[in-house]
């Protein structure tokens, strides 16, 4: 049977969606034409294997219902599955647990949190190399850009990794022992990484009812190893570079805007003795939609679609907000953080936290024409609700609200 006649199937049994997606990225990096099936419990994994055997199973040892070890045990009992490649990832590292797994001959028994780079290397021995045809994109099924963007808005992979961020990711992953402070310094200025880590930490914390709202909180919850794993998964996403110079220039400008809004929101919060890191995070994440949209435009072009300057401008004007909203909801960013991000664009009715008012003021300051000073906002609704001293507006550093 030739490689083209058989599509490699990999079954991932993992309850945590972020870990499951990371495992999917690792598989696709090693075998780009693999078909990856994802289930969240052991019974579903066993039922899938009974219907059709995959070429490899990657399972969490602590799956709900039927755990990973019992899944492996039941598969080994079947006469057709004694040699099925099986990677077990377990938090049980005591001697009795390891002894219980050894007779079942897992292809790998990995400790939690696993080292994603080591697992990727192990997968190279378990999976075939990517077929050459993987590099050839499938033809577009939609003829109009607007229809394409409507389709990908709800399923897009998010923002691209810009060149300097990719370098920072690479350095962070290649370094030896790192503490959380070093990771925060490396990743803290990138909106996509920040959003991903907050979302992952909040998902893991749902059973505690305490979502994370800042990168610092997320890093403390996730720890160094899991953080690096998640960022590696992001770096492995295929087609994550913007090759069109027009799109790359817009992305660089958007990224700088995100950093300016974050720094400005933090400065205002510090002046008012509010939660500065929370305001920084909301400012950093407010234009994820623009970055996600730019990546989708690049994907459209690389699949053979035409892309004029007018189409780019129109898409950025009309679709950025909806792309950002869809991404924040799909990633399950905490609702309180989404409210703060929304406040940067405008205030509706209701009761607002002082941090939300700071984000709204941040948006107004960034929208000021170059010939207007912050003092011109003294009658703005957010300024009045904050009871802001006009002298504070006069102290806002020009570099924070005006582009260079």
TrEMBL record:
Organism: Ectopseudomonas toyotomiensis
Any single Pfam family the record assigns to this protein: Response_reg
Domain HDOD: 159-347
Presence of keyword Transport: no
Keywords: Phosphoprotein
InterPro entries on file: Bact_response_regulator, CheY-like_superfamily, HDOD, Sig_transdc_resp-reg_receiver
The keyword Protein transport appears for this protein: no
Protein name: Response regulator receiver domain-containing protein
Positions of modified residues (4-aspartylphosphate): 60
GO biological process: phosphorelay signal transduction system
SUPFAM superfamilies for the chain: CheY-like, HD-domain/PDEase-like
Top-level taxon: Bacteria
Source taxonomy: Bacteria, Pseudomonadati, Pseudomonadota, Gammaproteobacteria, Pseudomonadales
SMART domains: REC
Residue intervals of the Response regulatory domain: 9-127
